[in-house]
Amino acid sequence: MKYLDEFRDPKLAQGLVKYIRQRAVVPSTVMEFCGGHTHAILRHGIRQLLSGSVTLLSGPGCPVCVTAAADLDRAIALARVPGLILATFGDMLRVPGSYGSLREAKAEGADVRMVYSTQDALALARDNPNHPVVFLGVGFETTAPTVAASLLQAEREGIPNYYVQSLHKLTPPAMRAILDGGEVALSGIIGPGHVTTIIGSRSWEFLPQEYGIACSVAGFEPLDILRAVALLVDMITEECPSVANAYPRSVTQEGNRAAQEIMDRVFEVGPAEWRGLGILPDSGLGLRAEFQHRDVLCAFPVDVGPSREPPGCRCGDVLRGVLSPTECPLFGGACTPAAPKGPCMVSAEGACAAYFRYGDYSDGK
Amino acid sequence: MCLAVPTLVTSIDGSMARIEVGGVEREISIVLTPEAKVGDYVLIHTGYAIGVLAPEEAEESLRLLRELEEAAELEEARAQAELRHDEVDERGLETT
Amino acid sequence: MGNERIRLAHGSGGRLSHDLIEQVFAPRFSNAILDRMDDAAVLEITGYRPEDRPEGFTSDSQLPTSGLPGKLAFTTDSYVVSPTTFPGGDIGKLAVCGTVNDLAMGGARPLYLSAGFIIEEGLPMDELEGIVDSMARTAKQAHVAIVTGDTKVVGRGQADRVFINTAGVGIVPPEVTVSGRNARPGDIVLVSGTLGDHGMAILTQREGLQFTSPLASDCAPLNGLVEAIFASLRSTGDGCCEADVHCLRDPTRGGLVTAIKELALASEVGVELDESSIPIGDAVRAACELLGLDPLYVANEGKLIALVAPGVAQRVLAAMRRHPYGGDAAAIGEVTSGRAGQVVIRTELGAKRIANMLTGEQLPRIC
Question: For chain C, what percentages of helix, strand and coil (3-state, to nearest 5) are there?
Answer without folding.
Answer: 30, 20, 45
